Amino acid sequence: MIALQLAVSFLIGAIPFAVVAMWGTGKDITREGSRNPGFNNVWRVTNFRRSMVSLVGDVSKGGVAVYILSAPGDPEWLRWALGLAAVAGHCWTPFLRFNGGKGVATMAGALLYLEPLITAPCLVLYPTLRKFGRGMGWVQEGAISSMTTMTLIAAVVTAVRGGEPGALAFAGWAMIVLRHIPNIREILGR
């Protein structure tokens, strides 16, 4: 039963909302802009309205997967595992030949469901860093903002909730860092 729950969560996470947002444009988001199937690239390639379709879809699927696939009384680790499976589905979606997005929005959605009182205030850091980084001319201000925000959330979850939730939060963080390796190389000038 748990394997089936995780598989379904993975498939929910795998829904490529950036592709859905591009319907009717004649453009393939995996071949335009940064080629990343995420809301920032949709915004870059088209417009704000279409990017919001992608963002809302990607955030929602993280929380929705945990909500519909878990039940009261389920162990906390299972709820976290369902969220992480959705993030993995987004990052390595079979619908895009196992090359998905960066996982930030889907992880944020899972975290908003699992730890709303920690996640919501921490998410303010993301747009703040984006704006500051853009003004300062940072290379990869989006990647820096994403990874910094996710690091903060994982650290606060660890400090407030303890080892198991913290380890699981850092597992999600690790997926996001892994997906950002090309961005990290650019930041480091390699």
Secondary-structure topology with pairs:
Layout: H1 2-13, H2 17-21, H3 39-45, H4 48-69, H5 76-91, H6 104-114, H7 116-123, H8 125-136, H9 141-161, H10 163-179, H11 181-187
Helix pairs in contact: 1-4, 1-5, 3-4, 4-5, 4-6, 5-6, 5-10, 6-7, 7-9, 8-9, 9-10
Question: Gist?
Answer:
The chain has helices spanning 2-13, 17-21, 39-45, 48-69, 76-91, 104-114, 116-123, 125-136, 141-161, 163-179, 181-187. The chain is mainly alpha-helical.
Summarize the structure in words.
The protein has 190 residues and is mostly helical. The chain has one domain (2-187). 73% of the residues lie in helices and 0% in strands. It is built from eleven helices and no strands. The N and C termini lie far apart (45 Å).
Terminal CA distance: 45 Å
Number of strands: 0
Can you write the helix and strand succession as a string? HHHHHHHHHHH
> How many discrete structural domains?
1
What is the mean predicted local confidence, pLDDT? 95
Work out the strand percent. Answer: under 5%
Low-confidence stretches: none
Secondary-structure content class: mainly alpha
Tell the overall outline.
globular
Radius of gyration: 16 Å
Figure out the total of helices. 11
Helix content: over 70%
Largest sheet: none
What labels would you give this structure?
11 helices, globular, 190 residues, single chain, 0% strand, mainly alpha
